[in-house]
Amino acid sequence: MDFSLSPEHQALKDMSRRFVETEFPREKILQWVRDKVEPPREAFLKLGELGVFGFLLPPEYSGLEKVDPTGMVVFVEELSRASSALSTHYGRAAVIVGPQIARFASQAQKDLVLPKVVRGEVQLALCLTEAEAGSDAAAISTRAEEQPDGSYLINGTKMFNSQIESAGFAVIAARTDPDKPKHEGITLFLVENPGQRPEIEYHRIETLGLAMIPTYSIAFNDLRVPADAVIGGRGNGWKGLLGGLDNERFYHGAIGVGAAQGIIDLVLDYVNQRIAFGKPLGRLQAVRHKLVDMQMAVDSARLLTYRAAWKLEHEGSCHKEASMAKVAGAEAYMMVSHQGIQLLGGFGYSVESGLPMHFADAKMFEIGGGAMEIQRNIIAKEMGL
């Protein structure tokens, strides 16, 4: 058993650290947060040049020798040190929707979408959640009715759709067979340039954190899509969604680990320099114990996340492990951001420190992509409970 990174993954980690520190300094990130804008397209084109969008895509598109979940975790950890929102932007295409398309879409759909993903040219969006279908994701009611010419008309509403207005492509989950059991009547559709479709109404939702991630409620009003927009066959949508959900969960673990480790490193620098009561804050036992607890939480989450990546690569599935990684990573991020503010005192409470951004962002990962309670239910079921 080897807990060290391979030479290739260590080189990836070092390169990613240098790139993130150069391209995404704190001042730039905080300006995007203040302005509530997405990072510019050029940022993702540079990531495309690095070759980091293809870790979970087939080698014929990624240019890599094989699918590399561990490489994805290594990179996401480093990117998340700058911003968990930045990693969320990256992962929508590279981790969640792109691999769904790679596994279930037609050859024509894959050839249309995946080369653009690898180059960082497009963002992807997933339209799944509804007002009455959050944790119970299969309970969606948005309808897609087949027309005589084989096309479909989509009607209904979706909630918490991130990046959809600027996305190059969206995957929409809709119910095509309402008389079938809820998991069997769902179909996925690929829609190009959804932000340019007048049949889709957008309303931006103001959120606690992730200010760089525009999030919308949307309404479909007779959105017509051709027959060849169907992904993976009619009625097979739930199967197509499941793999993406597991990817999202252990990648959320990597986000939590990377962001929390970045906070710890910042706090360590501060408490070793800040003098109080005649000595560095880091010499105070209360401070040291807090930091020890923070680091143990992050290290535990890191091990669970890397285990999920290993299981996906070597066994093809990581259902339980992905949920464990998500819970551990999200809860570590929330705890570390909270304690980080406390340890930095007034500076931690200032926007300039970056910790209020992390504190606001961290809460989303305890809810989005599967709430902590749902993840624990999944783990319990896998344990035989």
How would you sum up this structure, described in words?
The protein has helices at 7-23, 26-35, 41-50, 59-62, 69-82, 84-104, 107-118, 237-273, 285-315, 319-349, 355-362, 372-382; strands at 124-127, 143-146, 152-162, 169-175, 186-192, 200-204, 215-225, 230-231, 275-276, 279-280. It has a 4-stranded mixed beta sheet with strand order 1-4-5-8, with helices on one face. It has a 4-stranded antiparallel beta sheet with strand order 2-3-7-6, with no helix packed on it. The chain is of the alpha+beta class and 385 residues long. Helices cover 54% and strands 14% of the residues. It contains 12 helices and 10 strands.
How do the strands and helices of this protein lay out in sequence?
Elements (H helix, E strand, L loop, with lengths): L6 H17 L2 H10 L5 H10 L8 H4 L6 H14 L1 H21 L2 H12 L5 E4 L15 E4 L5 E11 L6 E7 L10 E7 L7 E5 L10 E11 L4 E2 L5 H37 L1 E2 L2 E2 L4 H31 L3 H31 L5 H8 L9 H11 L3
Parallel strand pairs: 1-4
Antiparallel strand pairs: 2-3, 3-7, 4-5, 5-8, 6-7, 9-10
Global morphology: globular
How much strand content do the residues show?
Answer: 5-15%
The number of helical elements comes to 12
Strand order of the largest sheet: 1-4-5-8
Query: How many separate structural domains?
Result: 3
- As a whole number of angstroms, the C-alpha radius of gyration is 21 Å
Give the C-level CATH assignment of the largest domain: Mainly Alpha
Give the tags.
385 residues, alpha+beta, Butyryl-CoA Dehydrogenase, subunit A, domain 3, four-stranded mixed β-sheet, 12 helices, 54% helix
